[in-house]
Amino acid sequence: MLLITSADDYLGYCITSHLSQFTALCPDMRVLCQETTAKLPWLRNFAKKGIDVLPVNPEHPHHLSKAMRSINQVILIMSNHPDRVEYCQRICNVASKSGVKSIIFLSHQGAQSEQHQALYDYGLVENHLVSMQQQQQDMNWVILRLELIQQYFHLWSHQVEVSGIMALPLNSDTELCPIDISDVCAVIAVLALQQDGSFATCLNEYHAGQVYTLTGPEAVTSKSIVSMMSDATMYKLHRYLMVRPMDTAYYLTDLRHNIWFDARLKKERSAVYLDQEEFGYRTKALCLPNDVQIQTFLDYFNWINKTMGSVHVEHVEVITKVKSRTLQAYFHENSISFKPRV
């Protein structure tokens, strides 16, 4: 069986939704969520498809031991809860003792930057996995360091709708390579599935112990992002504004009180109970960012500003044998969300 952690967070939802399109796989999947979020509509949808949805208390060792029963592989997703590092390390320890063969860990670009604590949280889990394998050779891992996910721009769509401005704490010439969430899911499908379409019992030797950087197909700047929005929406007055990190934090925090964005989330959560589109998860914002995720965004933007941006790495294409989706394709697919109300 395959275990996916943090299915109550955005990444967990997308990965589970992608893999659940293969109906025959659903009975061999188990997803974890916090007990307080067990009634989310997409979790109910997963249960309806035959996936084992298991609410757990991260502090309770028996809950995690129960979760690992019959599990061969774990897709470890860093949640946005304050104690996320300890939770991930605890899952790794229980998985090791329970005979799990391999762990696929979704990390983040800049994970080894000790100057950015929200990013270094990922680095601490990476280091824990490496040290565990040195002590126990029969459990393998692969680390996927994700660039900024294109779908996170959904969170800025309201700002663009209202003002026609994309405001980010990025220098205008800093390059980033956002990756589409469906490309992340495609990479995981390759790692987790065998050629006959069933779940693998362990990682392929070729991937075991590797660290992959998953990026989009091209580096873009804030100016080119605005140009892509304009091309997709046919609205030529989009502008870019560089703002302070605290301004971005204020904007993302205020989304919690924004009635228009709240209406969008309610509509999406209502639709997600059916979840019949193959890549429907690409078009959904679904979750409001909490303080931990907002700080992760700010640390990432600061990291690429200081390192002069990120570069395209071909690991997605090497693993999936398919070219990754462009940011322009994202804006075309979601153009209605970025068209200003004028």
UniProtKB/TrEMBL annotation:
Residues covered by the NAD(P)-binding domain: 45-146
Origin superkingdom: Eukaryota
Annotated TM spans: none
PANTHER family, sorted: PRESTALK A DIFFERENTIATION PROTEIN A (PTHR43162:SF1), PTHR43162
Name of the protein in its database record: NAD(P)-binding domain-containing protein
Organism of origin: Mucor ambiguus
